[in-house]
Amino acid sequence: MDSAIRNPQSAIRILVNAGPTREHFDPVRFISNPSTGKQGFAIARAARDRGHAVVLVAGPVDLPDEPGVKMIHVTTAAEMADACKAQFEHCDAAILTAAVCDYRPSEQLSHKRAKSDEPLQVRLEPTEDICAALCQTKGRRVVIGFAMDDRQGERRAEAKLKRKNCDVIVANGPKNIGSDRATIRILHRQEGWSEPLSGTKQDIARHVISVLESLHAAAARPGE
């Protein structure tokens, strides 16, 4: 546990989401992604160790629940969106690390589709952008989003920061998936890009919580 424990009176109520979602075609087939949820769980753990009140909305991951953290388990993007919006009403900040599927099948069968030798076409529809939805109602609350991209990462992160109206974007790369270590860059709305930061995911988590604490303190000051 981090030795620098905050005074409980200054605790921040933080929503974290983590892991993938699964979007089903039928009861046994789905589309998803390889996110493990490790970074989000590390952030929840670091926030708890700093004395903050944490709720963690987790997709289907192979990780144990975090003690001292309110856990909410979901499967689909719609379930994650509903849970995050409901919990954000009672929170001061959100850190959104989840790799939410961008699309889901427009039709979900109630039974397993039998295999056929014929080609199969599936229509997909976009899922809700959870970060953008929370930012529409955030007011002076702090929202930190994660953006994963394998090309033109900085340009796309800058566009996401503006479009979603979050306070910070953490640029994350595919090489971080499943690893216990990560390399990130942080894009601040006011300060621009940070230098690359590498370390264990717990190191990254502590740094992200430090950024959130600074932003939250600044937002709480009159005239900021």
Sequence-ordered SSE layout with sheet pairings:
Blueprint: E1 13-18, E2 23-24, E3 30-31, H1 38-49, E4 53-58, E5 70-73, H2 77-88, E6 93-96, E7 103-105, E8 124-126, H3 130-135, E9 142-148, H4 153-164, E10 168-172, E11 181-188, E12 192-193, E13 197-200, H5 201-220
Parallel strand pairs: 1-4, 1-6, 4-5, 6-9, 9-10
Antiparallel strand pairs: 2-3, 7-8, 10-11, 11-12, 11-13
Helix pairs in contact: 1-5
Report the major sheet. 9 strands, mixed
Span of the ends, CA to CA: 32 Å
Instruction: Please state the structural category.
Output: alpha/beta
| Share of residues in helices | 25-40%
User: Any idea how many domains?
Assistant: 1
In N-to-C order, the SSE pattern is EEEHEEHEEEHEHEEEEH
The coarse overall form would be globular
The H-level CATH homologous superfamily, spelled out, is: CoaB-like
**What is the level 1 CATH name?**
Alpha Beta
Number of helices: 5
CATH topology value: Rossmann fold
Tell me the Rg in angstroms: 18 Å
Q: Strand portion, in percent?
A: 25-35%
- In the CATH hierarchy, the architecture is 3-Layer(aba) Sandwich
Q: Which stretches are poorly predicted, pLDDT < 50 over at least 5 residues?
A: 1-5
The mean pLDDT is: 92
